Structure formats: structure tokens, C-alpha cells
Amino acid sequence: MRVMELTDWGFEHVREGVRPDPVPGPGEVLLRLEAASVNYRDAVILRRGYGRSSGTLPLIPLSDGAGRVVARGTGASRFAEGDLVCPIIMPGWHHGPLRPEHTLLGGPRDGIMRELIAVREDDLVKAPSFYSAAEAAALPCAAVTAWSALAAARLKPGEVMVTQGTGGVSLFALQIARAQGATTILTSGSAEKRARATAMGAHHVIDYRAEPEWSRAVRKIAPEGADLVIEVGGAGTLAQSLRAVRRGGMVALIGVLAGADATLELGRVVTQALRLEGVTLGPRDAFEAMVRAIELHRIHPALDAHVWRFEEAGAAVAAIEEGRHFGKIIVSF
After folding, report:
1. Secondary structure of 208-272 in HEC code, one letter for each residue
2. Which residue segments constitute the domains of the chain, with CATH numbers given?
3. Fewest 10 Å CB contacts: which of 79, 95, 126, 244?
4. 209-234 confidence digits (pLDDT tens)
5. What is the pLDDT of residues 24-39, one digit of tens each?
6. Structure pTM?
């Protein structure tokens, strides 16, 4: 089978290779993969930004993908041939809290950029019935993370959520919160992206370039502050998030795009009883619950207009750092 593999650290070293076709063992199914999507962590992996946790070379990159069942091993019965399914990013994490033994596809484990993959059937989730492979490939990381953040905050109808930018997590959070009846606020420095977010259902948009102290704009909309802020910037935006959230509210720390080393206003955190909670993905049962909600509300993911080819996987990962995309970057097989 064809694979794309990282032969040295750096985007330019993702190259086409060949590996033996896998055969499904007991309890496994064989998938023919049709699409993958890119996350910011893929760029960090390709630069070996996680050190030893990035994995060893050669490495098959990318963690998110979708494909169809083409064969089943002995005892495998959860899925039928032809079903469109997604491997979960952390094999074995089916429920409960994240544990040390749960490691990720795409680094340190070999990932999705291959034509065929044998997966334990317990590590798969059936895609929404009305999804294409490209849409399904957008779900495993970004959508599950957004779902987990909203679940942790126990966001209720009428409450207020702020999300930053127009990447995958932020737009999934917007769509899920809107479906749950929340008031949604999105920040973006691009007029075009703000307009597109409004068309997707954002109740309010804020230009953070024109209003660097954007927490004040949030407070004009919600005087008591937001119930939840989806924090993807990290050090560069965390202070504004802490000022935007209401007393007793939650900041879901998901990304560190604007820096990893932050100075916290600890007095504000303590006196306002704020919750600062790190959110990393979610178990299989959260993924399955999210798919049920997607089916109910007919939610389609936002996919970037440019679709990359299989052999362009390295360039697709490099593109996420440029920040011009809207929604999920897709690689089609």
C-alpha cells in the first residue's frame, strides 16, 4: 500500500513510501481510508515539538481520518463492510479519564496517511449517516475536543460562549453551542472570516485587531461575562479570556497558538472563582454522543475550500501554520 511518511523532522520530509498491506486480526476491521484532516498538533509533531512524544522515524503522520470497512477479522461484528467509520485518536480510550497508556495516532503511533489500516473495532466510531468521508475526517480531534469542552462547562440554553478564531475547534464549538441554545460570540481579525462565522450562526463577532481589549466588547454583550470561553491562543489571549468570563465561569484551555508560557492574574482566578480547565480530546463514548447530536441537529462541519491531494500531506500540514484556512484542512485520498 502507499503511505506518506516522515523520514526526517520537517514538513519537507513527508514523502511517499510503500508498506505491506495490513491483514485484520481477531476483533479488527480493515479500512480503506478516503480522507484525512489536519490539526495544529500535526505541525508540532513534524517539527518534533513534543520531543520523544513525537514518535520515532519513519512515522506515518496525521491523526484524523475516515474510511470504509473492506474486511473484518474473526469475531468482528460491530460494523458491516461498506460502513464509513473514524478511528479514535487514542486507541483504547473508550470511557473515563485520560490515562498514561492512551497515546495518539500520528505521533507517537503511526497515523492515518496510508491507504489501508487495520483497527480494533472497539477503536472505531461510525460516521454520521449523511456525512462524506471528508466531513467525517474532520471529527476525531477538533469536534470531540469542542464537544468535551462544552460538556465540561455544562453549557445551558441562554448561556454565553466565546470562541476564538475560525479553526476547527472554534467553529465546531460555535455550531454545537448554537445547537444547544447558547448565545455565541466569536473573535477574529479577518472581516471575511467574521462574515462567514455570522453566516454559520454566530450571534456576535468581535474584531480583536480593532479591539485588542476584546473582553470589554464581550462585557458589552454580556455584562456579567461569558459562561464559557474556548481558549485556543494560550499566553497571548489568556488574560483577555479571564477578564471576559463571568464569576464562577470556565475558560477551556485547548490550544497555545499564541504562546505556551503565560502570566496569570491569580487574584482574579481566586476572587472570581474561575475554572481554568485543560481539555484534550475525549473518549470514544463522548465521540459517539457527539455523533448522535450531529444527527439530531444535522450539523455539517466547516471545511476549508482548498482540498489537498494524498501526496501533498506535508504541504497541507504546513498550511495550517499560515492561518489562511477557514475550518478544517482536508487531505483527499
Report:
1. CCCCCCHHHHHHHHCCCCEEEEEECCHHHCHHHHHHHEEEEEEEEECCCCCCCCCCCCHHHHHHC
2. 2-138+301-332 (3.90.180.10), 143-278 (3.40.50.720)
3. 95
4. 999 999 999 999 999 999 999 998 77
5. 999 999 999 999 999 9
6. 0.93
